Amino acid sequence: MNYSICRTLEQLVYRRRIRDFEYLKEVLQTCWEQIGQDVIYRPRYTSTVSQMIVGLVATGGGHIEHRFD
Questions:
Q1: Is the distance from CB of 16 to CB of 35 less than 8 angstroms?
Q2: Domain range spanning residue 53?
Q3: DSSP the chain
Q4: How many domains are contained in the chain?
Q5: Is the residue at 34 inside a domain?
Q6: 12, 17, 49: which is closest to 34 by C-alpha?
Q7: Quick one: which of 12, 26, 43, 48 could link to 31 by a disulfide (CB 3.0–4.6 Å)?
Q8: Does any domain span residue 41?
């Protein structure tokens, strides 16, 4: 999953107080549905895929999260 989309999902999930693992699964599903296809297909999200590949090659498969902040 693209880091930008993951951050968007993370922001939605962090608004909730997670009680247990089962509730976390429900919250993840609900939050994922809130994101919607229009957000997923935004150019800023889809264009980072090629940047991720370049970053992975440059770092030899190492961490690249810092490149997208």
A1: no
A2: 3-63
A3: --HHHHHHHHHHHTTS---SHHHHHHHHHHHHHHHHHHHHT-HHHHTHHHHHHHHHHHTTS---GGGG-
A4: 1
A5: yes
A6: 12
A7: 12
A8: yes
How many C-beta neighbours within 10 Å does residue 45 have? 16
The answer to whether residue 69 is domain-embedded is no
CB atoms within 10 A of CB 20: 7
Residue-wise pLDDT tens digits, 6-49: 788 888 999 999 898 899 999 999 988 888 777 766 655 555 65
* pLDDT at residue 5 in the model: 77
Distance (Å, rounded) from C-alpha 7 to C-alpha 28? 13
| Token couple for 64 | 């690249």
Tell me the pTM: 0.53
Please say whether the dihedral angle defined by the alpha carbons of residues 40, 44, 53 and 3, taken in this order, is positive or negative: negative
